[in-house]
Structures are given as C-alpha cells and as structure tokens.
Specification:
mainly beta, Beta-galactosidase, Chain A, domain 5, nine-stranded antiparallel beta sheet, six-stranded antiparallel beta sheet, 1 helix
Length: 290
C-alpha cells in the first residue's frame, strides 16, 4: 500500500492493479472511495485494460488465433511497480510478460500516475507500444464512490449532475453482459440523473458521445460532492451492484463490451484503440472532492 497526502486530502494505492482504494477528505472526515466489501463488490477502483467489459464467450481473435480473457482484462489483478514517487505524485508501471503474452499477444507498457493538486486527484494513463507491429486495446476507469456518505442517508438521496444538458440513450446489455444492438431513451435535454436501484435493474447505464466533460455526485441532504472529469473519453458507464449496494461507480471508458453478434477480429471491435510501433497513448481523468 502506498500513501500520498496534502493538507486537504490523502490517497492510498495498492500495488495490485495500481488500484486507488482510498480518497479521504481530512477536514470533514469523509472517505469517498468504496471500501470493497467482498460480499457485495470486492473492488475499489480497478483499472480496466486491455478490454472494457466482456469479450464474447471470454475469447477474442488476433490474426485468426483465439485468446482467453476475462471481463475487464488482466491489469486489475497484476502487480504494478512503483517507478516514481514525489511529494505530490505516485507513478506505477506494468510491463508485458511471458504470462500476459499468453492471453494478450502484444508487447506494451502501461503507466498510471496519481497526482494530488489541492482537493483534486488527477489520474494520468499512458500506454506505450513496445511491439514490432501495431497493438490494439481498450482502457477504462471504474472508481466506486460511497453512496450514501453518511449513515442517516439513503442511496436515493443522491443524484448525478452532468456538466451540460444532454439528450442521451443508454446502450442495452443482455443477461450475459453483451450489448444487444438496442438502446433506449434516458435523458431528454436534461443534466440530472436521480439515483435509485431500479435504473440499474438491467446492469450498467452506458452512454456515448456526451457533450459534458464532467459529472458530479451530489446529495439532497448534505453539501459534499464528488466531481469526475473525463474529457475525451468517448463512453461513460454508471453502475452499482444490485439493490442495497451502498456505492455508485462513475466509469469513463475507451471501449466497451462486445455486441452479442460480434465474431470478428479484435482490431475491428467497436471502440478499440490502435497504437503504431513506438507510439504512445495518453488519457487523463480527475476526481475533485469539495
């Protein structure tokens, strides 16, 4: 476990998955990150790589060869190395290995840098192509936030406020966790999503091509809030683990689960990213507590 703090907040990061497991605001004595109760959902804020969601039957094809890969990929369960630590930042790295090449046939470097700037946690992602050919991947964040924050509140006292009014459909998942090529209207020139467990009965809400670059978790009962900024991420997932789960995940993604009828090559999967030889990909999100 690695710690970093300033006068306002502190964070904790695990070596496994380079996973954020605490974002604590000192003045109001509030822990914002879900603590990972294994009986409900045992993770805190996993990094999703090299896929987001599920590939069909947990297999995918590269150059007509099949590989097995479980939901959200392997990075969240790998041991990262801490390669840099300063007074304000921690940088972790995962390199390809003989083990990763068996399930993901690309040579890569994945770096995740956490930086504290007053009451903001900035998270930078870097993927570098170390292969002698193109590589393909998806990348996503999956932070869970305690909801409610206080014991005398309910999940339904909270809502999500998008930066701008949106007219959005949510992509529909089937019972196996794949998209079924359908969508349904969800917002109509609105920016507020009132939280209740019914809206998650069919799993996550998944939106694409938002105008908004941030969404804020707010309460009708207190003034605390969490703002997640995700400029340039093309997809946003919102999820909780069934009725009575006291958390909500706000998930910026590059990529998503397979469509139920997809049988093609990995490189042709919708939302997949491509890196040429020696190229690198960079993305940034931030979490602001106030």
């Amino acid at each position: 476990m690695h710690n970093l703090e300033n006068d306002l907040v502190s964070i904790k990061i695990k070596d496994i998955g380079a996973e954020l497991c605490s974002l604590y605001e000192k003045h109001h004595d509030i822990e914002y990150i879900w603590y990972g109760d294994k009986s409900i959902w045992g993770r805190n804020a996993p990094v999703l790589f090299p896929i987001v969601g599920k590939v069909k039957d947990n297999t995918y094809n590269v150059n007509k060869k099949s590989y097995a890969l479980s939901q959200h990929g392997f990075a969240r369960d790998c041991n990262f190395d801490l390669i840099e630590k300063t007074d304000t930042s921690l940088c972790f790295e995962l390199l390809y290995s003989k083990e990763t090449l068996k399930i993901y046939p690309f040579k890569f470097k994945l770096q995740i840098k956490y930086k504290l700037i007053k009451n903001i946690l900035e998270i930078n992602y870097k993927v570098v192509n170390l292969d002698n050919d193109e590589i393909y991947f998806s990348l996503g964040a999956h932070p869970g936030f305690n909801c409610p924050l206080y014991p005398n509140e309910n999940f339904e006292d909270y809502y999500l406020e998008l930066e701008k009014n949106e007219t959005l459909n949510t992509l529909c998942l089937n019972s196996d966790g794949y998209f079924n090529n359908k969508s349904k209207p969800f917002l109509m020139n609105e920016n507020k999503i009132s939280l209740n467990y019914d809206i998650f009965k069919e799993d996550a809400l998944v939106f694409k091509n938002l105008k908004s670059e941030s969404v804020t978790l707010k309460s009708t009962k207190n003034q605390r809030q969490v703002k997640v900024s995700f400029k340039d991420f093309p997809y946003l997932g919102i999820w909780t683990k069934g009725e009575d789960a006291p958390f909500v995940c706000i998930e910026p993604w590059y990529g998503h689960a397979d469509f139920e009828d997809f049988t093609g090559e990995f490189k042709n999967k919708e939302g997949i990213l491509k890196l040429n030889i020696n190229e690198e990909f960079n993305a940034k999100m931030s979490i602001e507590v106030s």
